[in-house]
Amino acid sequence: MTQVTALVPPDGQTNGRLVRREASASPERAAGRRRRRRIAETVLGFGAPVVLFVVWQVAATSGAVNPLFFPPPTKVWDAALELIESGELFKHLWVSLTRVLIGCGMGVVTGVAAGVALGASRWIRATLEPLLSALYTVPKLAVFPLLLLIFGLTDTALNVAIGMTVFFFMWVSTMTAFLAVSPGHREVAQSFDAGPWQTFRHVMFPAALPQMFIGLRMSVSVAVLMMVGVEFTQANQGIGYLTWYSWTLFQAPRMYVGIVAVALMGLLLSNIVKWVSLLVLPWARVEIEGGDRNLL
């Protein structure tokens, strides 16, 4: 229900204008506004890339940019069809997706465990936080040669490198989420004589979940970035390898296919995490101007 109230001058003089108006919007009208807003947001979301590709096509075909470096989207599309028909694109995508999922699994499990431990215990936080903070600033690609020495030229080194990147993002977001839980939540649990495990299960963990899902969305995106980096450095399969190898052969259309594929992979994984968050945390929403907006 929406209430609209106009401001009244202190002297009460309105000069014939409307002073106060209260209107109750019907549920049908509110639903219509939400539906129109969602349609407008969808059009804008899909329209921006379309405009970009149209400008790119016009610039490349008119000679405004060098087509050797910026081939028109039509040529990129033809290269994509060739890679799809040969099965090469899906082979590289599957390899890269497998690395991202394995690395994310390793990083999420260890990162959440570390975040919970440091967020719940002051002594563990005082012991490990300085060390982890120092390691967090080290570029993970700088550590990748060490992983190659330890694990050899195998996928294990690539997966561990991705997992290390995800670990630090999940550790920071989880620890921060637990530290941000309001003391009032703990006091309510104590008033019901809840034990440590009950407080953690029914109060601390649910309160920290929204922030943890935000960290998970960031971790998935960073995992895709790290995957591309390690495949640039040491790989003979994967979408990052396809992009880098196409660059070395100066096959610009195939290179752009790899770039677009990486972007779509990251978008898909991020939206999957967001969709899961809506299923797990339906209460993490807020009514803004008569419409539901996801906080995650």
Describe the structure.
The structure is a single chain. By secondary structure, this protein is an all-alpha fold. 75% of the residues lie in helices and 3% in strands. The protein contains 10 helices and 2 strands. The longest helix is centred in the C-terminal third of the chain and has 38 residues, at 196-233. It is flat, with a radius of gyration of 26 Å. The two termini are 25 Å apart. The model is unreliable at 1-8, 16-24 and 286-295 (pLDDT under 50).
Beta-strand portion reads: under 5%
Q: Which term fits the overall shape?
A: flat
* DSSP E strands, number: 2
Helical residue percent band: over 70%
Rg, Å, rounded: 26 Å
User: Low-confidence segments, ≥5 residues, pLDDT <50?
Assistant: 1-8, 16-24, 286-295
Which structural class is indicated by helix and strand composition? mainly alpha
Strand order in the largest sheet? 1-2
Mean pLDDT: 79
Q: SSE order, as H and E?
A: HHHHHHHHHHEE
Q: Give the count of helical stretches.
A: 10
What is the first-to-last residue Cα distance?
A: 25 Å
Query: Mind summarizing the main beta sheet?
Result: 2 strands, antiparallel
